[in-house]
Amino acid sequence: MVVSLRREDSPVEYATACEIMEARVAAIAAGSASGQVWLLEHPAMYTAGTSAKPADLVTPDRFPVFKSGRGGQYTYHGPGQRVAYAMLNLGRRGKDIRCYVNQLEGWIIDTLADFGVIAGRREGRIGVWVDMPAGHKSGAREAKIAAIGVRVRKWVTFHGISINVNPDLSHFTGIVPCGISEHGVTSLSDLGISADLSDLDASLIRNFEKRFGPLNATES
């Protein structure tokens, strides 16, 4: 199954990204385009998933807020966070959404392990989590380092994952991330790991291929 790679060097507006994804998903469903993994950043903003609660938008005037067709609640996107949108034909991959989400989680966990980060799932919580070092300035025992939000149409996936590399973590305080207030948010930088988006991309590509198959040459 052919899957192409697309990577952006400059931030992409969320509305623009959604339009591009919608067109690609329709083309994949029609059989006229291949699957695609799209690596990008967004300008600082909040997105509201289909389960978002108004009370979880703490400071509504801080950044632009976009309604999203993905599952989940409120999420922050911004500079220093790698977003990976995956547009894949599940019709050729077993038509199992639960398995697909599990694979996305595994993709993140494998990628973070390349940087020495032990991350994992938590029962009843969306995303990927880490245990925080004792005495960390946040005081949190656990923190979320990556988010997942997907949508499936005609068995074609879109939206995907985001991993915090070195974003401004104070930007997350304008929402209750994914509706969970009792735990923190962290990043590779916050954990003392020096890495940039290019470092993360190399690992994301390698680990995607282990779980989902080869990625073809980069598209523009």
Describe the structure.
With 220 residues, this protein is of the alpha/beta class. The chain has one domain (3-219): BirA Bifunctional Protein, domain 2, CATH 3.30.930.10. Helix content is 23%, strand content 30%. It has three helices and twelve strands. Strands 1, 2, 6, 7, 8, 9, 10, 11 and 12 form a nine-stranded mixed β-sheet that branches. The protein has a three-stranded mixed β-sheet with strand order 4-3-5, with no helix packed on it. Helix 2 packs across helix 3 (197-212). The chain is globular.
Q: Ranges with pLDDT <50 over ≥5 residues? A: none
Largest sheet: 9 strands, mixed
Distance from first to last alpha carbon: 20 Å
SSE succession: EHEEEEEHEEEEEHE
Give the mean pLDDT. Answer: 93
Q: Helix content range of the residues, please?
A: 10-25%
Whole-number total of structural domains: 1
Total of helices: 3
- Quote the CATH topology: BirA Bifunctional Protein, domain 2
Name the structural class. alpha/beta
Shape: globular
Strand content: 25-35%
How big is the Rg? 16 Å
- Write down the CATH class: Alpha Beta
Say how many strands there are.
12
Q: Helices, strands, pairings?
A:
Layout: E1 3-7, H1 14-30, E2 35-40, E3 45-48, E4 65-67, E5 74-77, E6 81-87, H2 97-113, E7 119-122, E8 125-131, E9 142-153, E10 156-164, E11 184-185, H3 197-212, E12 216-219
Helix pairs in contact: 2-3
Structural descriptors:
220 residues, BirA Bifunctional Protein, domain 2
